[in-house]
Amino acid sequence: MADAGLVPDDPAEIVADGRLHRYRVAGDRQTRLNGWYVLHLDGMASGAFGSWKAGLRQTWCARSRRDLSPAERADLARQVERARAVRDAEQRQRHADAAARAAELWAKSRPADPRHPYLVNKRVKPHAAHQLGERLVLPVTTLAGKLVSLQFIHADGGKRLLSGGRKRGCCVVVADPPTPWRVLICEGWATGASLAEADPAARVLAAVDAGNLEPVALAVRERWPDAPIVLAGDADDIGRRAAHAAALAVGGLVLIPDTEGADWNDAAGLALAQRSAALVAATTRRWWCSASRTARARSICRAKSARSAGDR
Q: How many CA atoms, within 13 angstroms, populate the side-chain half-sphere of residue 30?
């Protein structure tokens, strides 16, 4: 747990009963139980642990697998599979509870006031954003339109996701024109709003964070196999790496602001409009020139979708 950065806030509370337990990871907010573990001490000591927040999961065994007999390896595999089944069931229940809560809160919210301080500061329109009290409320959905969670943005720009909500492969749909000529995928909603206003003919999806760019891109490729995909990443190390990895996975293009540390909301205005318009020819030329790359991207997409089926 320590090596993975998932140390329990109170290690004394660890219970070795073979059941799934949730715990607070040291450093998380007081009320957050993002960590989970299953620990067996009867027979061969082993277990599994992870974090719903970080999307991590690992297994552990007191003995090296090389030292285990075939029978012991089979027993360990059964324990790991049982732990995975329990974890997946817990995750599905957490997602279902969060989706129900999201629907309740969304029903209570109203279309956002264009004068909301965050919108004014970011120089964007509300688009599909709603408002609940002083907070902006953004719907996190599957590409099929199913509401799974919410993102809240405060006037000062502070953001948080609904606890327990599904995020992987889901997004905030910023713009969805009837016949989009390409799909733009970015990290944050304000970035997506600026992109949508610069390129009204594009479908624009906000993945919420850099780590979700590739899962969203794979979902897009699976749903719209022939769509040109552009990853509009942030101009920082994490944003660039995530955008390029996602583009490679789906045969897409990458669009990064010229200014270090900027996103496409920071670069909004004339510069963005010019860059977006200039990309039209490049997108068309580079996308259609490589049928083999598209076929490979579809193959990768199918393989990754099959491997990650348990995370959906």
A: 0
Cβ atoms of 118 and 135 within 8 Å: the answer is: no
Give percent of the chain with pLDDT exceeding 70.
83
The model's pLDDT over 240-283, given as tens digits with 9 standing for 90+, comes to: 999 999 999 999 999 888 888 888 888 765 454 455 544 443 44
Q: Which of 220, 210, 243, 246 is nearest to 143 (CA)?
A: 220
Burial class (CB within 10 angstroms; exposed 0-12, middle 13-18, buried 19+) of 114? exposed
Q: Which amino acid is at 291?
A: A
pLDDT of residue 268: 67
Number of H helices, E strands in the chain: 7, 14
Give the type of residue at 245.
Answer: A
* 263 and 239 Cβ atoms separated by less than 8 Å: yes
Interior angle at CA 35, CA 30 and CA 41, nearest 5: 125
- Residues 6+ away with beta carbon under 8 Å from 71: none
